[in-house]
Write a structure and sequence with these properties.
The complex is a heterodimer. Chain A is about 35% helix and about 15% strand. Chain A is built from 10 helices and 10 strands. Classes of the chains: A alpha/beta, B alpha+beta.
């Protein structure tokens, strides 16, 4: 919606709101419920577009006050440098507290085994660091940018999702979520994962980014990058973490990333989209879903996401 | 482009998941990799099993049933849709209630070979109880009755008798075949006698949520107090306008305290606005320095006020495996307001096949009961029939935190009538 439309609504009191207005209002309501119900919440910030949108929603929910929670980043050590730079600049601009905890340190402390293979992903290890940081700060609620349209298991998760002290999700013991009433009461040791943009799709997120004119890390837009061609045909950005051999095909392509997870498990898609509008057009034409296009770890088994959520993954 | 939330209800074999799959598939909301994953699982007759698009959890795949509420999304050039898929078995009334609580419209699915059955009645009555005003009777599997107009007409008539009998909103009846794709998104040549809209055409044209027309309601979720050198005295009451409209300069009463003030400013994203309406998230500042905290309501003083009450009658859907006994102490969460409470009496149980009142000593999982509820703190409520938001609450187990019941306010004894009076003494919790 343009600014002109918005003014019109305020003066004529039209009774229909654009769907993005409704999604935004719902998300702000959820963020404020977190602030009202919990003592030590945190916003899990990955540097990805979904968590960036969450910070914009938090500004709308809590300004002119401070956020009632810090931004928490679990750094796998395999992050894209552009994303880390963006993260630090955003935290500075917002003037909010940023907590960074490194998977590297968890690996040392807990003597975990580094993942092996050609494309070693630290994604599974993030869960350990996340549980450590929850324990360290005694967070009782962790806000995340997961969306129900990403995956079938997520489609069934509540907006307030109660986890035990191991972070586990039990799909059969979920609380019914009625009207817009969110029940965050927990027992000692439990915590709640909160997903304010549950009802948004990937396209909704992009349309919101466009409407709000939210700056993003450069890697979301088309750029030239040296990539490895995977057996599936997907492209993986070349980094020092990959264990390549002579048969690997290295190419230079015009690509962008649809998600910005671990650089070793987040594939690039060929694109010369320069603007958010280009990306929205790309998406409207795209026939491959976001996680399918770019995440190597979900393809392992059809129940991949469900298993990881049960084990404390976001 | 606006938003419509709808729920689909039907029995186990009515083809509900297939219908949702068909809506997603024919509106081109399913991507290639998701289709590829489906095709991998489907070999025998070569067709894609569209129901697998919604049956998400492993336990469901093993048992071949949907066990919990799932949400699906699709967008057409005219609307964004949020589908709540609630399971059809008798024992899962709580999921149906959960799904219906947020829905603007219900699609009641019947099998053309079976017509209106007990489950149809049950689902319709629950959806109506939860305040849904738009119903679609989707007569599915028309392909299995040779697309026979007489079969469709008989079922539509049966269903109209049901809605008339219970004085429910009239339904729009639509013949279709989810499996074959007839009349779900595109009109079908197999149904030449049917001249109405396809299911999707109908969903695109139904009016959406109209919460701005109800009386103004606002509840404080969080108090913003920056306490910075620039804003030492700023106190903003952050919350969502639950219904109706508010404007700058409006006289408002704070409930439960009963104190009056005037709206000094309404802020949306830090910009002051003259007026704001539901469902906008706003910050309201008051002219006077009155005591306001989370859970308090700001409402227009006068005839449109909600009822301030510590004793109310409510319909409950009991959602816990532990039965409810009269005298049970628990917590009531009325959106952002929380109070200790006790169910002082179970008046009767509602038979959801007939709406008949049945005597009962206790409420079991999935029972719908009428109860009397006493609360420690006064709540500012409306009747559910007047306002689905301020007329609803949940009951919570004080120890485990589990949600025990969904509650609909049916009657409330007013705490006090005339203003201004001294605020009632609050119980401490």
């Amino acid at each position: 919606m343009t600014d002109n439309n918005r003014t019109e609504i305020q003066t004529t009191m039209s009774t229909t709101f654009d769907y993005l207005d409704r999604l935004e209002a719902e998300a702000i309501h959820i963020l404020r419920e977190v602030a009202g119900q919990f003592e030590r919440p945190a916003l899990l910030f990955s540097g990805g577009k979904d968590s960036i949108v969450l910070t914009r929603l938090a500004e709308k929910a809590f300004r002119p006050g401070r956020f009632p929670f810090p931004l928490v980043h679990v750094d796998t050590g395999h992050n894209f440098p552009e994303v880390l730079q963006y993260r630090d600049e955003l935290a500075a601009r917002l003037g909010e507290k940023l907590v960074v905890r490194k998977v590297e340190d968890t690996i040392k402390r807990q003597r975990l085994r580094e993942p092996g293979g050609k494309y070693p992903s630290r994604n599974p290890l993030q869960t350990y660091t996340l549980l450590e940081v929850i324990e360290e700060f005694e967070f009782d609620a962790c806000i995340g940018g997961a969306r129900r349209d990403e995956e079938k298991a997520r489609a069934k998760e509540r907006i307030f999702s109660v986890r035990d002290e191991f972070g586990q999700w039990d799909p059969k013991r979920q609380r019914p979520e009625l009207w817009n009433i969110y029940n965050g009461r927990i027992q000692k040791g439990e915590n709640v994962r909160v997903f304010p943009i549950s009802n948004w799709t990937e396209l909704d997120v992009w349309r919101y980014i466009q409407r709000e004119n939210i700056p993003l890390p450069d890697i979301y837009f088309g750029h030239e990058r040296t990539c490895v061609v995977l057996p599936s045909g997907q492209l993986l950005g070349l980094t020092e973490h990959l264990q390549l051999d002579e048969e690997d095909e290295i190419v230079t392509r015009q690509v962008r990333f649809r998600t910005v997870g671990d650089s070793t498990c987040t594939a690039a898609v060929e694109s010369d989209a320069r603007t958010v509008e280009d990306i929205i057009q790309d998406l409207l034409l795209a026939k491959v879903s976001e996680r399918g296009a770019t995440r190597l770890d979900d393809n392992i088994s059809e129940a991949g996401m469900e298993d990881r959520k049960r084990n404390g993954y976001f | 482009m606006d938003l419509l939330r709808f729920i689909t209800c039907g029995s186990v074999d009515d083809g509900k998941s297939t219908l949702i799959g068909r809506l997603l598939y024919d509106s081109e909301s399913v991507s290639l990799d998701v289709l590829a994953a489906l095709e991998k699982r489907q070999a025998s007759n070569g067709t894609v099993d569209l129901a697998l698009l919604t049956d998400g959890l492993r336990a469901e795949r093993e048992q071949g049933i949907t066990i919990d509420v799932a949400y699906k999304y699709f967008t057409t050039p005219r609307r964004k849709f949020i589908i709540t898929d609630a399971p059809g078995h008798v024992q899962y009334t709580r999921n149906m209630v959960t799904g219906a609580s947020n829905a603007d419209l219900a699609i009641v699915l019947v099998d053309a070979r079976q017509g209106v059955i007990e489950q149809t009645r049950r689902h319709t009555l629950i959806a109506a109880l939860l305040g849904i005003r738009h119903f679609v009777l989707a007569v599915n599997k028309m392909d299995l009755v040779n697309y026979d107009e007489a079969v469709f007409a008989r079922i539509a008539t049966d269903y109209a008798e049901l809605t008339n009998h219970f004085n429910l909103p009239a339904a729009t009846a639509i013949p279709l075949s989810a499996l074959q794709g007839d009349n779900v998104v595109k009109p079908s040549q197999h149904l030449p006698w049917y001249t109405g809209p396809s299911l999707l055409q109908h969903l695109e044209s139904v009016p959406g949520a109209q919460e701005t027309e109800a009386a103004p309601r606002f509840q404080v979720q969080y108090v913003i107090r920056p306490q910075t050198p620039e804003l030492p005295d700023y106190r903003g009451y952050a919350g969502q306008i639950l219904s109706g409209q508010y404007r700058r300069g409006q006289r408002v009463r704070v409930l439960p305290s009963g104190l009056e003030s005037e709206i000094e400013a309404i802020e949306v994203n830090q910009q002051e606005v003259e007026t704001a309406a539901a469902p906008q998230a706003v910050v309201i500042r008051l002219r006077d320095d009155v005591d306001v905290s989370r859970g308090d309501a700001l409402v227009p003083a006068g005839p449109e006020e909600p009822t301030l009450t510590r004793e109310l009658e409510a319909t409950l859907c009991w959602m816990s495996e532990q039965p409810l006994w009269p005298g049970r102490k628990l917590l009531v969460q009325h959106h952002s307001a929380l109070s200790k409470a006790a169910v002082s009496a179970i008046l009767y149980k509602v038979n959801v096949q007939t709406f008949a009142r049945v005597h009962t000593e206790q409420a079991q999982l999935n029972d719908i009961v009428r109860v009397r509820l006493k609360t420690a703190l006064p709540l500012a409520v409306d009747l559910y029939a007047d306002n689905r938001t301020t007329g609803s609450f949940i009951l919570v187990d004080e120890l485990t935190g589990d949600t025990l019941a969904a509650g609909l306010v049916e009657a409330a004894n007013s705490e006090y009538f005339t203003a201004p009076v001294a605020p009632p003494v609050a119980f401490s919790i």
